[in-house]
Every structure is written in structure tokens, then in C-alpha cells.
Amino acid sequence: MSHSIKFWAVVPAAGVGKRMNADRPKQYLELAGKTVIEHTLLRLLNADVFAAIAVAISEEDPYWPELEVSAHEKIITASGGKERADSVLSALKSIRAIASDTDWVLVHDAARPCITATDIQHLIASLVNDEVGGILALSSHDTLKNVQGDSIVGTLDRRHIWRALTPQMFRYDLLRNALETAEGNQAITDEASALELQGLQPKIVEGRPDNIKITRPEDLALAQFYMEHQHD
Ligand code: CTP
Ligand code: MG
Is the confidence at residue 3, as pLDDT, over 90? Predict the structure, then answer.
């Protein structure tokens, strides 16, 4: 008897938000009446596709247990790691007993609170029959320069350059193996790069430009603007 494929979400939320320069990690800053991470998780829950959501939280995090969403029946708390990839691997291990090797995992940054159900559905519909999986990404509108010091040494062919967003969607076993193999490698800044290191070629799925990552202080106002104008 074959079981039906499930979808799991993994949310790395164990960063300190250094570039945000705030009094607490950026996922706990307020945005339109809720913390950033509450927006992110409520949107994933409301998308109504995930069997559960594993969230990687730092051991020293006093904010997480205070949030109502941390006790939601579909939320599983895992411990965070030193780098983002360590946090993702830890969250994957926390669902090891309940996820099947061929189930799909969508990894989504806690710091991307403007994620929409349309983007999640678009990613899943585009990749569900793919061998490897892939990521939401954005093409670049600007001309891109290759620079050494403060001098331009070339212009990149924009058609071949995309900006990696999240969610990034891969099979459970493939993703876990790739992250385990790449453990400690500083060049692994997203899930796709771990799979690329295995010689695999993840797919690109064009995402919405409003799916921004809160990185610097000015991003909060931009996220609020997008939220006020999102209707789907
Ligand atoms: N993250 C994580 N574990 C880490 C580092 C980052 O779970 N050891 C998470 C962050 O919480 C965030 C996502 O990965 O949701 C994307 O990382 P980034 O935007 O770089 O967040 P921070 O590392 O917190 O920010 P900064 O790099 O400015 O310190
Ligand atoms: Mg970081």
C-alpha cells in the first residue's frame, strides 16, 4: 500500500539579526500588530498544506515560549544551530520519525513574513513532479557588475543571474543527506547550494517580489507596506 506524499515546512528562526541592530532578534520585532515570526508562521499555517511546521529556535531564546503560536498543534520546536544550515538540519531531524524519505520539505526563513499562499501553491504546483526540487527566485532588473576593489572588471549576463528566495522545496532524504554532507561548509547559505554541491541542479520558480527578507531596519516599513497592499 503506498502512502500519500506529505508536505512539511521547516522554518529556521535561530539567528540573532546582527544587521538589524535591534534590542532583540529581528523575528521578534513588531510589524503590523504581530511579531515578524508570527506573521510568517500564521501564513504557513493558513496555506493549509503542511502536515507540521518544524521551527528551529535558539536555546537562549526567551521570546519564543511567550508566543501563542509556539503551542499550536502543528508547530514543532527544534533547537537552532551555529549557522542557518545547522538550524535547518536540526529541524529536519526533529521530524525524522514522522516524515517519509520521499515527502517534500519547504524551508522558509522566519525573516520572510510577507510570504503568500499563492507563492507557496505556485512553488508546489511547479515542482511536485520534479526529481530534485527547487526554489523561489527573482530575476534581476538592475545591470550587475563584477567588481574588484572599487573598480568594475566586467558586466554579468543578467539572463543567467537570479536571486534566491525561500521557500526552497526538496525531498526529505535528499535535503538531509545534502546538508549532512555539507556540514561545516561556510559556502552553504541556502538549501539549493547544498544540493548543487552534490552535483544536482535544482529548479528555479519565479516568485513574487513582495516576499522580502527582513535584513536591515528599513525593511520593516517596506514589509508593512507590502502587507497593506497584499490581497492574496
Ligand atoms: N537562522 C537560523 N540559525 C542561524 C542563523 C540564521 O535559524 N544560526 C535563520 C534566521 O533566524 C533567519 C534565516 O535563518 O530566519 C535567514 O538568516 P538571516 O537573514 O541571515 O538572519 P540572521 O542570521 O538572524 O541575521 P544576520 O545575518 O543579520 O545576523
Ligand atoms: Mg545571518
Answer: no
- pLDDT band at residue 1 using 50, 70 and 90 as cut-offs: very low
Superfamily name and number for 7-229: Spore Coat Polysaccharide Biosynthesis Protein SpsA; Chain A (3.90.550.10)
CA–CA dist 55, 2 (Å, integer): 28
Whether the predicted model's global pTM rises above the 0.90 cut: yes
User: Is the shortest distance between the CB of 17 and ligand 1 below 6 Å?
Assistant: yes
Q: Is 105 helix (H, G, I), strand (E, B) or coil?
A: strand
Nearest CA to ligand 1 atom 25: 17
d(CA 164, CA 44): 19
Element (DSSP H or E) covering residue 86: helix 84-94
Grid look-up 507596506 returns: 225
For cell 506573521, the residue is 39
- 36 Cβ inside 6 Å of ligand 1: no
Can you tell me which residue has the cell 537552532?
A: 80
Q: Which ligand is nearest to the CA of 16?
A: 1
Q: Is 10 in the pocket of ligand 1 (CB under 6 A)?
A: no
3-class secondary structure, 134: strand
What confidence tens digit (pLDDT) does each residue in 181-202 have? 999 999 999 999 999 999 999 9
- Ligand at minimal distance from the CA of 26 is 1
User: Percent of the chain at pLDDT above 70?
Assistant: 99
